[in-house]
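Lab channel / #folding
Pinned by the channel admin:
"Please post every new chain as: sequence first, then the structure tokens as a reply. Keep commentary short and put observations after the output so the thread stays searchable."

First post following the new format, from NK:
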Amino acid sequence: MAPHAEDPIPDSGIDLIQHDGTKYGDWRDDFHRDGFAIVKNVITPERAAYYRQKQIDWLQSFGLGFDPHDESTWTQEHLPVSFKGGMYFSYASAHEKFVWESRLEPKVQEVFTKLWGTDELLCSFDGMNITLPRQKDLKWSPWPHCDQSPHRKGMQCVQGLLNYQPNGPQDGGLIVMKGSSKLFDQFFSETREQDDHEDKPPEEIDFKDLFIFKEEDVQWFTNHGCEMVKVNLDAGDMAIWDSRTMHYACFPEGDRIRHVQYICQTPAKFAQADVLQKKAELFRAWQGTTHWPHCNIHETGPPLRNGVECPLNRKEPLEKPEMTKRLLQLAAVEAY
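Reply from TO:
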């Protein structure tokens, strides 16, 4: 694959990356064919267990009485505020030490380096997913969506999740519309309106890189040869997908808690100077961002409980990360 421009402007509509048809003999072939791929054994089962426990410790640190062994505490009143019942983006969680440790895992870095052909990367300040099965007070509905604006062309962002808990057909996990990324431009060649979903961001929030599909849109992709696939993973596996791929999360119906860290890294050369400056400022303020590392950078805002800022909101992580040179480069604080 090769960049179309030395100084790409993400909002210009110019393709940033186009795959040149190279065959790699590994997961990259699956990715470029299907729009997603599974990378096995990115971390060891022991490291996955470490991260699972760190996530549980983080939930319990709020002192709301959550107990992973007592399902009566698996309710909103015992948990910090999340999105879709288990996605945590607030409370400075994006900058917890264990979160940055996951982003810096050697094979995580290797995945994105191989994919983009460079190790000069930026990292999203993204959230984690800790979804409890059988949570009785949770209202949940599917939200098939893609995380790339129809106005952006080509492969501009690739999302990933590092999986800490084995998950099978009955467990929570990623659902993708296999092959949908290749039909992105064709689908949006006609005027399309988002589904008026309950989880659609308010109009005053210029979210840009989100499109929630209607049921008939899902059928359109199916009619054009795509297939909805539940991605099952072992502890330590990583899933990656083109941000043009339709996807959403499957709610766990089995006995296992879902444990995931969302990680997205893109080439630093995709970002403009003002974006790099803003990203560095948000890092210093311990703010999270969207899935996009190199553009559409805006803070997540405070967690809202009953319409007001959660009184337990945090302005900095409980355990700050070690400020290594590599971390600061990924955060746009230091230049390459």
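NK: Residues 2-330 form a domain with the Jelly Rolls fold (CATH 2.60.120.620).
TO: also worth noting, The first helix runs from residue 27 to 34.
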